[in-house]
Amino acid sequence: MVMRVISADHAVAHAVRLARAEVIPAFPITPQTLIVELLSEFINDGELDADFMPVESEHSAMSAAIGASAGGVRAFTATSSQGLALMHEMLYAAPHNRLPVVMANVNRSLGAASGIWLEYNDSMPERESGWLQVYIEDNQEALDMIIQAFRIGEDKDVMLPVMVCLDGFVLSHTVEGVELPDQDLVDKFLPKFTPLDVLDSENPKTFNAITPPEYAMEMRYRLERAIEGSKSVIGKVDSEYGQLTGRSYGGLLDTYRMEGAEIALMTLGTATSTAKVVVDRLNGRGKKAGLIKLRFMRPFPGKELIEITKDLKGLGVFDRSLSFNGFGPVFTETRNALHSAQFPITNHIAGLGGRDITFEEVKGMFDVVERSARGESFKECNWHGLRGVTV
Amino acid sequence: MSDQQMKTIKDMPRTDYFVRGHGACPGCGVAIAVKNIARILGPDATVYVPASCLIVFSSLYPTAAFKWPFLYTAFENTGAVISGIKAAYRRKGKETTVVGMAGDGGTFDIGLQALSGAADRNEDVIYVCLDNEAYMNTGIQRSGATPFGAWTTTSPVGKKIQGKREFKKDLGAIVAAHGIPYMATLSIAHFNDFVKKVQRAKEVKGFRFLHILTPCVPGWRSEAAKSVAIARLAVETGMWTLYEVDHGEDKLTYKPKMMVPVKEYLQLQGRFRHMSEEDIKKLQAWICEKWKHHYYEEIPVPPCELEKGKKELITDEDPLHGV
User: Fold this and answer.
1) Are B218 and B140 in contact (CB under 8 A)?
2) Could you give all domains of chain A from N- to C-terminal order, each with its CATH number?
3) Residue B308 pLDDT > 50, yes or no?
């Protein structure tokens, strides 16, 4: 084990090296590029025995990763924003063919009001594609989660692709101390990839034939069951990794000071770290405030949320993207899961287009939650940190 | 019969890896091409098919016409997916031939970028373009491969504009410009040439590109029994040229004894029935330029008309009719 001061992008690259990925097709896009640059260096320096394929687009990156995974090897790629959007079509091929490709998506805002800064409007729409999707909080978690993603995706009861989402710039280009586990430990935790089905001329199989209505619906149902079934594997893998490294993340979600909490905020990504400080301050002033850190957007921990929130008097849900004329996606999913809850649930939009989320703004979110818990009437969807607009 | 001796149609192995029972139309040029490529490439191959007629008539769950491992995902990514499969095989130390079989739309148009990427990286794969000169699977829409004047459902014969106004894209030149180890154009009517080229593609390492003109009965509005004859006339008129570029060396593999007027080719296909004399002249002039480019031979425009007897020989007494 060594400790290195590195960015989350580099932590991801180290994780991919330790996981012994074999085929890495990739295309550059800010703020992901540091990942594939370092992987290229590992390969050219002989530190990673893998094929780096410099493809001509993200669409081809995902296509080649799918081809390699169907050929029976561990495949990894990384992207961001517009690149993920260009891959969109191909994302749908991996889950149904049960190909456990692992991808890092460095979150960056998508589309007009164009920028290279953090927002979740690139990856959130892809939660419909059948990929497992996890959001992380710090650089260590980036490394640990990439290693776990291969193990979860390649579990014979799962066999699904996994998208590890990390905050652009806030994590991708910010250095922190990261513990790199020993290769022996990772090898023990992550055995060689054994596909269920593989393209093999000695035992020819047809992958992804055109599927008429008589069969397609059952295939969709099986995929749905597999995603739900991945929940137990995620929990199991998290505890096993915890035993080996001393780092456990709670699986689908984690909690902070939720014991005895009356009001709570649910966050994901780096906003969680900011919110933890605010929770501490609020508790210091005698408020019973807690925090739920959502990790997996797919599978979504609906049942788990019901249990965790059962004693709450108010819950706020933070979103770093939104469905226009609707709500933030995390809020939509959460309120749907908690439809029988007897306490108010409010949505808190902040940090769009990479805007910083300050302690004051998080405190503002808790204010709304606290007052709505006392019975005050609030808008369901509250924007925080808007300039020049009265909300 | 060892691979080295496979020089003519008689040497072709008889074991099929694209088997009967598929759903292609009678007289389908794609089916003829695919069946015979599969015979030549033999058992140790894997195929990727993008969106096309071929995916629909070969692999409709729960049936499969390929006895090879088969993958389909989308339309525009043949070059990329076959690169990925080959990379996996390379990692596993497998020698299996990886072949992508795309249509003209999937190659000339939507798949051009992934094709260029794979050619640029000199991926060790065979890319086959089955060129029936339009998006036949979606119902005969114009592609970059559609010839000048041809009717398609998106280049209809209107009161103002009749048929496609642009000439066929020179894909062979684009692909060859990547400096790949081997590229060739093939015809389902010139089978000894076909066998040699597929065999050569099988032997060569690196990116190989086979471009085959595959007549389409419903799309070309032709008779099923005439597909091979039409393919032969395409070459005799200069609409299609048989050549290869082997490690940078250009070689014409067949030269017609004389240029047959393009009218002979057009009249067998309903897609050209509406063409005005003026448009036919325009197409003929384009072919004469192409002929000069390929064969270094000036042809006066228009070329001499054929004698009646000869015409019959070309269209109806084709020795390879029904192969």
Assistant:
1) yes
2) 2-245 (3.40.50.970), 253-383 (3.40.50.920)
3) no
